[in-house]
Amino acid sequence: AQSVTQLGSHVSVSEGALVLLRCNYSSSVPPYLFWYVQYPNQGLQLLLKYTSAATLVKGINGFEAEFKKSETSFHLTKPSAHMSDAAEYFCAVSRTGNQFYFGTGTSLTVIP
Amino acid sequence: ETGVTQTPRHLVMGMTNKKSLKCEQHLGHNAMYWYKQSAKKPLELMFVYNFKEQTENNSVPSRFSPECPNSSHLFLHLHTLQPEDSALYLCASSQERASGLDEQFFGPGTRLTVL
Question: Which of B42, B98, B100 sits opposite A104 (nearest CB)?
Answer without folding.
Answer: B42
